[in-house]
Amino acid sequence: MKKTILLLALSLSCLSAFGQNKIILATDIQDTAPKFMLKDGKPAGIGIDIMNLLEATGNFKFRYEFKFTPGKAIQANMKSGESDIHIGWALTPERQKFATFGEELFKVTYVGVVRKDDKADFKSVSDLIKLGDQGIVLANFGAASTASLKKIQGLKVDESGEDMTTNLAKLAGGKGRVYIFHNLGIGYEMQKPGNASKFRVVNIDFETHEALKETPQFVAFSKKVPAETVQKINSALVKSKKEIDAIVKKYTSN
Predict the structure, then answer these.
(1) What are phi and psi of 139, to 5 degrees?
(2) Closest C-alpha among 71, 80, 64 to residue 224
(3) Could you tell me if 128 and 239 are in contact, meaning their C-beta atoms sit under 8 angstroms apart?
């Protein structure tokens, strides 16, 4: 009996130690479905599924409150160390100042959305520049793609909208000519009831602006996260590449 109690005590002690040794990482949730979203009232999406996978296969625990955080606030939290990690970020020189970029998770391309009745008499960013006030581009505030769009001389960019929902509402209301964002998010939004009857997707030639063509999305860490933790997460992602590819496919195959 004493031996059984001793073994039980040792087992509980080991389980307790295992829990205490978990690597806890704080993160923010971004309003960029299908990366982060609610499904049947529960957190879901590519980012959530990747974090769940890492928790199931490794000694990690992700801490977050499921509320959408604006892009600029996410950057501020990563810079201060309040947030440790972000799943699915494009690498930019500005972000490299305060974040360490790890493994690539998936790639996106950038497309445009116009009103359904728009003849879209433009094919390239040069065409949009020539249109002047009739070629205003709507873009998400704080997004990497927005920073790239703003660097195009002569292109008029309205970044007052923080997310896809806001910008599509602005577009429907006649504010702006085209909304530009990545194919992953726009593809998801176009599946929502009513959007296909109001909008259509158009391809845009971004010419020499490489950052707006195929763009890798990475896992990113605050520079305050220990190098050992960064290495462990990156290693776990490499080992889980097949499963991560399946997660991305699940949200993009429809």
Answers:
(1) -150, 155
(2) 80
(3) no
Question: Which pTM does this prediction carry?
Answer: 0.80
pLDDT band at 31 (very low <50, low <70, confident <90, very high): confident
Q: At what angle do helices 241-252 and 227-239 cross, to 10 degrees?
A: 70
The SS3 call for residue 123 is coil
Q: Which long-range contacts (CB under 8 A, 24 or more apart) does 18-25 make?
A: 18/59, 21/59, 22/59, 22/60, 22/61, 23/59, 23/60, 23/61, 23/229, 23/232, 24/60, 24/61, 24/62, 24/63, 25/60, 25/61, 25/62, 25/63, 25/84, 25/85, 25/225, 25/229, 25/233
- CA geometry: angle 76, 82, 86, nearest 5 deg: 75
The DSSP code for 136 is P
Q: In degrees rounded to 5, what are phi and psi of residue 184? A: -65, -55
Distance in angstroms (rounded) separating the CA atoms of residues 209 and 212? 6
> What's the pLDDT tens digit per position in 196-218?
999 999 999 999 999 898 899 99
- Residue keyed to tokens 């999305």: 217
Which structural domains are found in the chain, ordered by start?
25-105+221-252 (3.40.190.10), 110-212 (3.40.190.10)
CB 150 within 8 A of CB 141: no
Q: Distance between CA 23 and CA 21 in Å, rounded?
A: 6
Cα(108)–Cα(148) distance, integer angstroms = 14
